[in-house]
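Sanity check

After download, print the first record. It should look like this:
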Amino acid sequence: MNPIRPKIARWMRKRGWSYDTPRSGVRSRLVALMDHRPWWDWGHMLMVLAGDNDCGNWSDPEPPTWYYRLGKPKHMWLTRYPRFPLSRIEVITDYTEFRSLTEGLNEDQMYEWKAINASQDGELQLGHQYWGGRFYGLSRWETALLAKYLRQYRRSTLWGARSWLYSLGLHATVNKKRPFRCHATPPRGSGGYSHWYCEAPRRHHGPHRFGNYEWSGNTADRVEHRPERTP
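Expected structure tokens:
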């Protein structure tokens, strides 16, 4: 492992780079890429580049949440017609800003705010933050806002490429194979997982090992937890 990379990561952390706002910014990604990762762990690095920072864990890119409420529209100076529909809507895209703005409001005042987001299953939702909503019967103001939200989200995910790249990195991280190693997996029914590839050198003597687990390769034996390596 390159000893320079951890030093660069520590230098960045001292300057607050790992707590950059937003959390998925360029600085936080650079710190994660410079951290303790071997060169062959390309899956984790791809997850950092394509995923979203979730308290230090890089998760699948998800749609952001927009909070909005309707206000008085801005009118043109001469004709007094309403200007572009979105000029009537107050939109907040950062949750910290939304929380500080709505702190201390009662239930009726909170009901003025609505949100656009996605559920845990990826289903698009629009309506009140706590009471839900529906897509039919939208005003033209909300239709314009929804169209803008979808356009920006599609651009931020590179039209689906980020999710695809993230899934490739996740698969490579789970099925991690160190190069020039044994790569034997535990027998079926031995208590191990099929993505545990032996990290010992090729043609090694003794049991196979992945992390703190060892197995003999015999189908009758089970995987054992051994923090200390077998001599």
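If your output differs, re-run the checksum step. Summary of this record's structure: The first strand starts at residue 52 and ends at 54.
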